Request: fold
Amino acid sequence: MTQQTQNQNAQEAPALAWLNESDDGESVVITLKKPIEVDGQKVETLTMREPTVLDQKLAQSNAKTNIDMETQLFANLCDIPSDVVINMKLSNYDRLQTAYSSFLD
Reply:
C-alpha cells in the first residue's frame, strides 16, 4: 500500500466511522448522529439490510414522490415504521442515504 493510499484511507475512515458492515456481510449497522424513538424505545443504531430489486419495486409502487419512495424503502430495509423515517432529523437521514448508497458500489 502506498503512502498516498494510506493517507487517503486514514482521511476517509473517520468520516464513515458510524457505518459498519455487519458480521453476516448482508447488512450495515448505522450509528445515528442523534438517538431516535422507535416504538417507545430510544434507539442509537439501526441495521439496514441489503436491498433487493423487489424492495425498490414495492417502494416505488406505493409512492407518489421520490421522497415517499425513499422513506418507505429505508423504513422497510431498517425494519422501522415509515413515520419514524419521515420525522428523522436530516443528519440521521443523510446517514441512511449514505448507508443505502454503500450497497450500490
Notes: Strands lie at 19-21, 27-38, 41-49. The first strand starts at residue 19 and ends at 21.
